[in-house]
Amino acid sequence: MNPGLLLCFLLLFLPVFNLAQDDVTPPASSATPVEFNTVGKAMPPDAAPLARQIYTFHLPEPTTLDIGIAVYEATGAVFSFEGLTRLDHNNELTPAGADRWEASADGTRWTFHLRRGAKWSDGRPVTAHDFEYAFKRMVDPASANRNASFYYEIEGAKAFNQGLTRNADSVGVRAIDDHTLEIRTTLPCPYLPYIASFPTSVPVPRWQVEKYGPGWSEPGRFVTNSTFKLVSWDHGSRFEFVLDPNYNGPHKGYVERIIGKFLDTRMMAGGTLAYENDEIDQQDVSPIDLPRIRSHPRLSRELDISKDFLTHFLFFNADFPPFDNLKVRQAISHAIDREIICRVLLQGMGTPAWSMLPPGFPGYAGSKYRDIQRFDPELARRRLHEAGYPGGRGFPRIEMWVNTIARQQVGQAIQEMLKSHLGIDMTIRVVESISYRTAQYQRKIPFSLIQYHYDYPDPNNMLAMVWRSQPAGYSRHPWRNAAFDRLVDEAASEMDATRRFRLYDQAQRILSEDVGAVFLYYGMKASLRKPWLKGIKRDRDGEFPFWGNNTGYFDIYIGDAGR
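The structure assignment produced for this chain is given below.
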């Protein structure tokens, strides 16, 4: 490898410490005594007394807290574990379970040096052996982890996960000693530390997993390695986490308790009553509530809308008619008015999308692909006619699946556009989230409106992780394109950043032209936050990404004013 490239590569992926002013707690005045919370973290000068350091939020009740192999089922409890690395509010890598890491000269062997003195919530030491066990468990077919393909860059992981071998030791993860973990990749993998930052890339307590099986994450059994530990889980009502004095890492929390109140998923289409009654401190907002919030004298001051790396799109089961016909997929892509959806339905909480990577994301292509899937009803009708369905005649009635009620309104707009411009009849089917994910991986969904939120800031995540073809059961979507696969595979191991991004750019074009998806809009994040909720950091663009990347749970605190 060129020595200059190697130096740039190592500088990029070695731990980064951001000392921007927003990241530093203001020092207390010499005349003001410093208060420390129960784990010894100095509280900001404007913090409320410790008895009031409680953060409360709503979430659908998890079916498990075993986030390493069940990320969708455990959503809402991502703060309960600490991986090797973590992304900060600027999407930069920072140390977490590992103090430092380095790559071999060829980029295929990564060595992570674990923090000394780290402990589990039951007092046992956290070791590299815990990480080795967890990574191999993530790709063990017996775990049924839907995100196993996330780790296919690791040597032997794909073969083990897809049953080509039953030998877990063939997976390239090894504890050299208690504090040193080695991860080997099949090819150079410049984004491996980003994969290590994903919420599923966490250790698990082997002694609990093997003793209790799937029930190991229940109260009284759930052992974690983060600054927060579970103290109660009242099924059907709420869970509660508190600060763990065993945690000795760099991400200690300020708040003494985190309370998650479980929300009936049937009620997630809108409404801010719980927030207005001060039952919760923060709430994500749907577009349907925005007009009232913006006109409300108090709520309007508590509203924040920030960017998010989130792409909404339609996908097809291209293995079966009529969606196996490219001209059908093209017709649908040209029949949808994205501007109307963003301006009217989303109330400005979205911008039209023409490719997978959103604005500001590494590799974003701007509007260069706009013409490929542009709104053009006449062209849409022509493509449908060429596909053998003039005026929609003979076109089978199709069903669009959605996995939230909140998404149904956009689905209804698309339903009307397809009827109006193409003569296509479509019904909408709302499916509960877990059932939806199961059907998705089993390739039982014919046509769907869905979103993808980034996991780490690299094109590999939103292109290869989502769209690189895999057998049924191992990937999200059934679309296959050999040229796309070759490009993202080549880009994944390319060490020259310029060439790497050029390959991803070519892959994006193929994805748009072959209509692997109809790209609709890039979502934004709208949330209400109580004025006493402090510590949320602005990123380098002046926006608040906290609710997107989950780092803020360790920074927030309750201010002394209000409440």
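Interim note for the steering committee: Residues 306 and 525 are 5 Å apart (CA to CA). The radius of gyration is 24 Å.
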